[in-house]
Design goal:
CATH superfamily: PgpA-like
Number of domains: 1
Domain YutG/PgpA: 24-157
Strand content: under 5%
CATH architecture: Orthogonal Bundle
Helix content: 55-70%
Structural class: mainly alpha
Number of helices: 9
GO molecular function, one term: phosphatidylglycerophosphatase activity
Radius of gyration: 16 Å
Pfam family, one: PgpA
Organism: Veillonella denticariosi JCM 15641
Protein name: Phosphatidylglycerophosphatase A
CATH class: Mainly Alpha
Length: 170
């Protein structure tokens, strides 16, 4: 069995290989949490992302999802799964289910953060979802959104006194 530290290191390497950095995810955390915590810093966001990325269940979800994306790129999945994954079919939903294993780390706020990020697709999520570079990121875009959502939820849970109500822009 791999040590948690080894898996964490491999997870960071895998994300980097796919064009995702801790900074990219921290920017998503800031994007989603700033309306509720106006004085939130990017450093706090980075720390929270690093904390989420230190968890073994997060490593397992990312390793599994990215491996499926890579296999799809190599046309190594059986049909009809090959078609479903490479086309990121909207009714597939397993990519979101895998992401939920990360979102669950910080409760319902993680779900709402994730749903919002999945809908608006800001930052690196949009880049991953756009299929630029010919890569299949059916799982990775959702996993990155889930890490950001969990990290934002972690911040809110750890410092609830800082959270303010925010009204949606009309």
């Amino acid at each position: 069995m791999e040590s948690t530290k080894d898996l964490e290191k491999y997870t960071y390497e895998l994300l980097a290989e796919r064009g995702v950095t801790l900074e990219d995810i921290a920017e998503l955390v800031l994007y989603v949490q700033k309306p509720y915590m106006p004085n939130l810093s990017i450093d706090e966001c980075r720390d929270s992302v690093a904390s989420v990325l230190a968890k073994r269940e997060v490593h397992n979800a990312i390793l599994t999802g990215v491996e499926l994306d890579k296999l799809a790129e190599q046309n190594k999945l059986s049909q009809p799964l090959q078609h479903i994954v490479t086309h990121d079919e909207s009714l597939y939903g397993i990519d979101e289910i895998l992401a939920f294993s990360i979102v669950n780390l910080y409760g319902s706020i993680g779900f709402t953060n994730y749903g919002y990020l999945d809908k608006v697709k800001p930052g690196i999520i949009k880049d991953l979802d756009s299929e630029v570079g010919g890569r299949c990121n059916t799982f990775l875009d959702d996993l990155v959104g889930a890490v950001a959502a969990a990290a934002a939820g972690r911040i809110a849970h750890n410092e609830p006194h800082r959270v303010q109500h925010a009204l949606a822009d009309e």
